[in-house]
User: Fold these one by one.
Assistant:
Number 1:
Amino acid sequence: MAITGSGSLAISLVLFVISVAFLPKGAAETLTVEGQNLATDNVSVIEGETATISCRVKDNDDSVIQLLNPNRQTIYFRDVRPLKDSRFQLVNFSDNELRVSLSNVSLSDEGRYVCQLYTDPPQEAYADITVLVPPGNPMIESREEMVSEGNETELTCTAMSSKPAASIRWMKKGEELTGETTVEETYDRMFTVTSRVRFSVTKEDDGVPVDCIIDHPAAKDLLAQRHLDVLYKPEVKIVVAYPNGLTREGDNLDLTCIAEGKPHPRRIIWLRVDEDMPPHAVVTGHDLYIENLNKSYNGTYRCVASNAVGEAYDDYALYVYDAPTTIPTPTTNPVNTQDPRAGEGAPQKIDHAVIGGVVAVVMFAILCALIVLGRYFARHKGTYFTHEAKGADDAADADTAIINAEGGHNNTDEKKEYYI
């Protein structure tokens, strides 16, 4: 008598039921041993995607392979699917493998699946299906919308409804921040993770992004970002618009106060430290204008800017120099208009050099004159000779010498003088 394929399947099922029914008590547990020829793999799958279960036999002697769900219901017996769930589809069937796919996986599909091989004794191998559920888009909340510099802010990041629980990291300007994490398991075996981070802010943190990064096996590149909104007091700087150089008597002075802050400074004040403003001083917004400077205006002028966070100031030291009487000698070294000692020092050095040069020239001229005069007198120096006593050396006595002397009283008319 010929047996059809469906008849063969029915006979195999009957034989399997009879063999289990006549096993001694406790023998069913002994059958759930690790299969010598049977192998399978655990599967992790993201919810909504497809899982594949493979039951593999190394050396099959025409034994029947079947796949059971966690409730031990037969999904596939050989290449036949008794279970009425169309999500299970046969991928491959042969003497050495039964491969089945499960589409649109949900959390209810998670559990232990059984591969059975009808040998004597039967063999089983287990494939655990783990369903991964990625968290929803993370959310960052701040304790306050804006924070002032020097204060502490707190950010909270939440990753909801994931499986397994997600992990959260914080990053700010390339550096990782340490947060406090709490994990809550919900009724449907899902997890909600919350992380809080606290840190102090400075004005340099204004506009800086803070990242909440979610790490989860079912998600990649999942993060939330928040830019810091930091309030800070003004930064003040005084700029000299005029003059471009030394401030001298009779000149005009024009100063501009530059102030930046968050919020933007709305109040700008000009004042003279410890003294009253000059009568010619005019304040227009950020500018201070003083005309016809004189030395009584010397002092420190201050620009004060303020906002809701605080106030700050910058100082300008005014020193008025004498009006120039000569064209100043060009110099390659700039003069510090803020330092009175530097302004006075430069003209003094120039005057001393000029005076020293003049004195040197005069002394040199005097020395040259003395040398010329000396040489002149040396050339015209001579000896004065007369002939009145000529022959006196040969006389025997004084009277004779007088008588014999040429040019005596008898020769007075012939007296001659010679200059050599």
Number 2:
Amino acid sequence: MGNYSKYFIAMFYVFIRMMILLLEPKKNQMVNAADMNNTTVAVLHFCATGSTPLHEPYNDIRKFICSSLDWHGYSIALRKDEHDVVTIVLSGMYEMNWIGVGVSRDGKMEGASAVVGWLRGKDSNSSVIKQYFLQGPSSDQFIPDKGDLEFGKAAPTMLLQDTTIYLAFQLQFANGITRQPFIFAAGIGKPGDNNILPKHAFNTSMTVDFSKGTFTLGYVDISKVKLNHGILAIVGWGIFIPLGVALARYLRDLEPLWYYLHSSVQFVGFFVGLAAVAVGKSLYDRIDADFLYHRAIGYTVLSLSVLEVCQFVMRPSSSSNVRHYWNLAHYWVGRITILLGPVNILIGLYCGNGGEKLKITYLCVLVFFVVAALLLEIRLLMKRKREATTNLTKTPVFQVD
């Protein structure tokens, strides 16, 4: 096994070095807000003005962080307190229009909830502020009085002063929020009695990182990254690893072919699974997804897989006194890995909105493996039962008269 082991050790070392380079955090380039484009990360700065004509807690914005939205003088001011209450003040040029701020899970409009306001006339006392659920991209899919947002203690408000319109409100977020995508829109014209919003004339998005003091203007499409992460995890942890275990359990008669098949398939599964972790780490850095259990189980599976690789490298000979304990450790670490892998894939698919096609595909794969394992296990038990019966009825080679 010497050359075989050296080959895989070399592969393992090279792959680990590649993954270290891939997982190494990239430093964001810090630039001025005036130089921002759709993919530029900029340092959030405190608002240039110290106050607004609004009432408390929207009047004093010295501790807020601000950014221009590059349309008709619009800007956004935000502040998150220790209770994860985010205070938002949106302001810009008033043109008999509606304005709104949405909270998105991934930066997309679809599925977001938004706070939208407009004035019935030039009198700011006759304002309307509603929550909308953005079911789709067209205005007839913006459902009024629906949404997932929870307002804070301070009441939402709108104010028109000279030519500047203000929309301010507070939102209560879940504990520990650090990064949050927001979307912004403004439209010429006002909703009618049915509260259907006219088509927007301007829209943009921004991801605010409250923990680091940075933001990104523009929508960052993470759908391909999510898809790659899901496919790699399914192929690595959901197909190759269980397949390698099945080869070792049900092909033991093919000595030593089963061992080489088992080792090769497991190494491929480990490398693909490691790539899935690397892509998942990159995805987390982009959206700061709050999937604690998914991440914890994923790193646990990776750690157990690394332990399996180390066990392969340090595999004692069959005559060694510690071989029995090595076998026990190898069996149980492997069993825990093939149990946690599919569980974590399901968690990721359903908590991370993996897409119906990917969900159905993996459920079919999982059902196939379960059914195949049951049939092969029944076949193995019947084979062992026949061998036991044959051994009992076999005539002894040596008999004592």
Number 3:
Amino acid sequence: MTALLPNISVAGSTAALPVTTDCPFNLTPAAQAGLGSDQSLAPLCTLCCCGFLNRTLAVVFMVSLAFAIVVGNVVTLTVFVQTRQSRTPQGYLKVSLAIADMMVGVLVVPFSVYTEISLMVTSAPPIWYQGTSPATSSSISGIVSPWQPCMLIGPVFAGCTFVSISTIFLMTLERSVAILRPLHKDALVTRRRTLLLILLSWTASFLLALAPLIFSRNFTLEYNECSRMCNYTPLLFGSQLPPDANILLLFPAFDFTLLGGTLAVNIVSFTSIRRYSRKRKLLSEGSLSDAGVAGGGGGGGCPHRPSFSDIKAAKTIGILTFAFTASFSPIAVFVLGNVVGYTWCNFSFFAFWILTGNSCCNVIIYSVRDHRFRKGVTLLFQREQSPPHGEKT
């Protein structure tokens, strides 16, 4: 997701800023115009971020990650689309999650690769590099900003992050219904309702991703040297942050609210699973002589207990929630740190790319936990390697 980062744009400011390295391109053209001719620029990155070797290693890492994200999620989508048993509400939610992850691998990471290679092979950054926003260009006469690709890439990354956590939340709710109300699952969780919730999730997520641009004119989106991604940047007025800079705290607040709700639902579901498992164990050992004590009559103990596949699916979604929480937490720490005035250049790279790496984790979790997914992958590759029909005899 995008965050408050130290590449500050300056609107009508002539305050001198300290030099931290010899990188020649770090401020926007408007910021450079706002500084006096005898004043130094305020670069974004440290020497370790700008070095040729560092950029080369970063590009290799980005290319490998983009390949893993795209291939893994293409396989996931193919399995869910071609497997009839996957055409369920849970399957639709997994497809939504895979599409959000694949968009990160198709748009966000390749753009960072392109930008890093451009900075390595050319002596000057691209013309759009940290270009001015409308608010900035209006305050500096004669400067016309080129179209900023980060205006697309930044909201895509933020929106896909919000889609991922909201989809995981919906998957948790769907599994909790299957665990707590197995007899009413088909009536409560329908395909139509699921598709409607998916549409609502995507719409709300991308509206939230654009919130700083919709509700304020004091932000722009720029490529950041530290994180190697397109990030929201507040415009400085004098030497002060804009009064609405805290609007970026909506992002971690939204994510942690949904993560907290997901954790609460998982606790309720796993408590119920533990109760059912304990009753099943006692019945198998003959410790419960009265079947009615186990949940209401007749011979098998609790008649409304969830199936084994529902229990295993709930545990899988719990692992997905834990993985996303672990990958998102560094970003939340970084955003809070920037709001209170800390600048962590190297940490920002690790924080943003740990979150990006989560986009290829889901297929690994499915492969380990979901036997239907493993079977679908096996059938998919067997179908691709099978000989023509005429040669089978």
